[in-house]
Design a protein that fits this description.
Blueprint: H1 3-30, H2 35-40, H3 42-52, H4 63-95, H5 103-118, H6 121-132, H7 136-160, H8 164-172, H9 177-215, H10 218-228, H11 232-260
Helix pairs in contact: 4-5, 4-7, 4-9, 4-10, 4-11, 5-7, 6-7, 6-9, 7-9, 8-9, 9-10, 9-11, 10-11
């Protein structure tokens, strides 16, 4: 990098930094936020957390009920992910440039993926809430639709990245379309697909907590219930269990990825 390019990049970085500072100042001015008062409240906030967000011995009496709700959330997340993965697999094959049967199906598959993926899961929960009400079906469908869009897009890209050598070799021997897909495409992209499915299981467990607050199901409903009762000790226990669950599932997913990749 010569001196001229270095100066150009330096001025760009400085300009970007000035823009960020200006936007921050404008946002604070627009919302009447005072940085000095905000930072001054931090010690008091930590003191309140230390006094209220503690797990007491009495809190563990609520543990069985909380674990039931947590288990319900985990099962809902896994069910939504696996069922969405099955449908996303076929949509991915239809939408991929490598395995697409015709252009119309490819456009439909990509359209479904785009619509389902670009609308947040929380928004899907609110939309479905109007039709199905507050129940487990609404939470399941919200996770299912969001997962379907994400996995369809991921599967399309995974299939498109498959090498064409085996695909073309089987095609040249006169193999049928399903034989080519089953023998040449699926074995090559399956590890990546499994990795995406595991990623969505982790993501959906986190999302299911927020969806549960809206749909009145799972651990999210229990969290919201104790929060409204101002039972912060139970809220702390629920939060700790969610964090532990996500970490354990992430460790298990990482181990599975190492085995299959």
């Amino acid at each position: 990098m010569n001196e001229k390019q270095f100066r150009k990049r330096k001025w760009k970085g400085l300009g970007f930094f000035i823009v960020i500072i200006a936007m921050t100042w404008f946002s604070a001015h627009l919302t009447a936020f005072n940085f000095i008062d905000g930072f001054a409240t931090i010690p008091a906030a930590f003191m309140w957390m230390a006094e209220n967000l503690m797990i007491t011995a009495d809190t563990f009496d609520k543990l069985p009920g909380i674990l039931d709700r947590l288990f319900e959330t985990i099962l809902m997340s896994i069910a939504a992910t696996t069922m969405a993965a099955v449908l996303a697999f076929f949509l991915g094959i239809a939408g991929s440039n490598t395995t697409s049967i015709n252009g119309f199906l490819s456009v439909v598959a990509r359209f479904v993926a785009s619509v389902a993926r670009n609308i947040p899961v929380v928004a899907w929960a609110l939309i479905l809430l109007l039709s199905f009400g507050q129940n487990s079906v609404t939470g399941f469908l919200a996770l299912f639709v969001g997962t379907l869009g994400f996995l369809t897009r991921a599967f399309i890209e995974s299939i498109d990245e498959v090498g064409l050598s085996a695909y073309e070799a089987l095609t040249a021997t006169g193999a049928t379309y399903f034989q080519v897909v089953g023998k040449a495409v699926v074995p090559q992209c399956m590890p990546q697909m499994v990795s995406w499915i595991l990623f969505m299981v982790e993501t959906n467990i986190r999302s299911a907590t927020l969806v549960g607050i809206l749909t009145g199901t799972g651990i999210g409903y229990t969290f919201d219930l104790y929060y409204k009762m101002l039972d912060y000790h139970a809220v702390t226990l629920i939060t700790a269990l969610i964090v532990i669950t996500v970490i354990l599932i992430e460790l298990a997913s990482n181990h599975i990825r190492k085995v299959i990749l």
